[in-house]
Specification:
This protein is mainly beta. It is built from six helices and 35 strands. A four-stranded antiparallel β-sheet has the order 1-28-27-26, with no helix packed on it.
Amino acid sequence: MKWIQESVLVGPKHAQSAAALSPDGSILACGFQDRSLWIWRLPDPNARSPTVLLPQGGVARCDEMDFHPTNGHLVLVARTLAEIDPTDGSQLFQVSSTPRRFAISEDGSSLALGFSQHRLEIWDYAKRKALYELRGPPNPDPAKAAIVSTLCFSPEGNLLASGAEDGRLHVWDLGKRRLILTLPGHRYAVGKTRFSPSGDRLFSTGEMDRAVCWDIPSGKELWASHGGGTLALSQDGNLLAVGGANPVRLYNASDGTPIETLDHMHASSLFFTPDASGLIGVGGNKVQIWRRIGPEEHPLSMLLDSEAWFYEFTEYLTRLGFFHDLRLLSREDRADEIRRRHHHEHSYDLPKYPRSSLDHLIVLAQDKARVWWNDLEADVSPSNKVYVRTLKELGQISAGYFTPLDIEETWATDAGPLTVRFSSNGNPVKLTPEYQGDYIDIGILRDLNHLLLETPIRFELYQPFDQTAYVVSLTADQKTALTHQLGWSFQDVGGFPDSA
């Protein structure tokens, strides 16, 4: 089995601070540093409900959020703890406590709140009432912060794991209201914890540290991996995903055997879909959705483990109509020339076989007559004439169907508004890009595609996965092939409609 990137969701230009996936996998909620809360309806990545503000009294940072397991409401901490309706953002209740972290038991009856100095409160969720307090032993090193950084209940609700910023991990017996284990497995803050479905194992990650699998109740370390920060455990307990500063890695949860590294996926929050066929990673202002595939899903997937993939893949692209200048070469010579071009431009070799679906983009990007792949942070200003250059470059990938002439870029002030005028096929054209600071307004593609309505090609924008834009000129058939045979996903910029 392999994993491919299926789609990318893009939030506001602010980093994500917290995220949650509903128990049935149908709703993804992300809080951002601008106090906005974004809701996506899955599996349709374009069905985002209107953005709602965090509850009144919240601050720029939402520290934690999760869905209540039985009523489907979203619970979050933004200075205070609140419950909101994810359909309209209305606040249902708010408590006066100011915890740093929280956890809800799987049956929805209990709530754990984490504070500083390893202090915990256990609440009756339905009654919104604190039942009792637990407090961990003080750290011998007073310089280390003892603020609770993660909490989770065991499936039966009888145990609670609490990690702190000083790296210590505690396990509590809630029936006896006492600490039963202190696990010294992390040098830095404990990032995330999860119990196995049977409750006899506990998984934890440490910031810039490692991921560890613990035996419960002995506290024995069963296996560990390098790197950490956040984790996700599949509902069946078989798969563990570990992310953070390093690329996301997948493990067999039972013994720690590495399964796959998703090189292009970096995430501060991770979630498996209920059936473990999908993995969702949230990092910065991007949401990546990856899907597990089998060899029967499309003809090229069977090549993912073969060193012959590069020859077959470049042959496939040529048959689709790409690399027109290399079409007369043999399959081997064509592949070698594409490798040579890439090494000349980037000074490193293409992989022998793809590490992720994004390696397909890297290969096709060597067709400079069809692909424009550039950083949107381009120092846009009156003196740099970035839009003049961008229009010329887009014209070069249009197969002659878009030929802007006499391009003029004028600014009213250094912060806009700005106007771009040119002629196309003898007709005057006026664009009014939105001023976005140093960034190019890639929304101009919609206007350019309007000019291409009577032509067989459109500028198509691959779903954004970072601050670059991957634009490729495609025919309708080419877009259909890339979508259905490679699983590519495109953002709507007025190109060809998606085919069923």
